[in-house]
Amino acid sequence: MNFWKQFSPGFTCLAPMEGVTDIAFRQVVAAAARPDIFFTEFTNVNSYISEKGRPNALERLQFLPKEQPIVAQIWGTKPEMFAETAQAVKKLGFSAVDINMGCPDRHVVGTGGGSGLIRTPELAQKIIRATKTAGISTSVKTRLGYTKTDEWRPWLTTILSETPDALTIHLRTKKEMSKVNAHYELVPEIVALKNAISPETVLIINGDIKNPADGQKFIEQGADGLMLGRAVFQNPFCFEKNPTTHTRDELISLMRLHIDLYQKYGFAPYDPLKRFFKIYINNFPGASEIREKLMQTRAIPEAIAVLDEMEAAQ
Length: 314
Ligand SMILES: Cc1cc2nc3c(=O)[nH]c(=O)nc-3n(C[C@H](O)[C@H](O)[C@H](O)COP(=O)(O)O)c2cc1C
Fold this sequence. Notes:
Layout: E1 11-14, H1 23-33, E2 38-44, H2 45-49, H3 54-60, E3 70-75, H4 79-92, E4 96-101, H5 106-110, H6 121-132, E5 138-143, H7 152-160, E6 166-170, H8 187-197, E7 202-206, H9 212-220, E8 225-228, H10 231-234, H11 248-264, H12 271-274, H13 277-280, H14 287-296, H15 300-312
Parallel strand pairs: 1-8, 2-3, 3-4, 4-5, 5-6, 6-7, 7-8
Helix pairs in contact: 1-11, 4-6, 7-8
């Protein structure tokens, strides 16, 4: 059964983001305005397979039942490890598994994984086949190509000929990283290719989409769903179906929730949490001074003291 078929056109997903979309932040997004589908950060299959790496892999794969539907994203280069990890993902109760074939990070690409797989299409195909053997709905997230945009046609033909249940296309090449505008002009041709090769594959568009209304044009062009990543940094309420304005107090309460959850799940050290503060301390008078104060803090109680002081001063 194709998990992806149950959603109406225009459905939304929170993009998988390493170091960002962990169990704590996903709950913050859910409290603000949840997408239809969550994705985990990517988890390395070698890490899951090895005894030493497994605790870390399982930490990345933790989720709450109320987060469902949630998709686990995995990456690596060894088909048999994908099969085994996908079985584990299924046992853990995820709705589906997604294969990362788009990460441009040099450490990932250096192993041949992520967008490195664009250069080894036969291996990419073997990985899809192996993952499918686990009997869980299997999708792929990738880019247009490695160096040139016109690689998209042969590359997506390779992927679609394996009939994944869904395909998320980030409309840039690996080389482009996130430095140029997403190639929106290619959407109609990608839809046509998908319909010609694998009409049952659900197509999800990704790249610079700010909110569901902003992506509606792709749905009108025949895509099925939208994936938003960095939009959530500008506006944690970006998944709202009917956007409204939000108060400073609402943003602060999301930040307090994030801090609570960060502690609750035992995440450490403190500094990575600071990167999130600009999401909440934004777009209100005096925000930049408060942000500066928060950047000087060295532990959670100090950050809470800054928030308390700000709220007491109003
Ligand atoms: C901090 C960060 C971490 C990311 N980690 C992942 C990841 O683990 N897996 C993945 O497929 N893409 C990852 N991406 C890429 C996003 O999923 C998405 O494709 C990209 O940000 C473009 O979409 P956007 O313009 O909506 O942000 C990451 C992006 C960012 C900014």
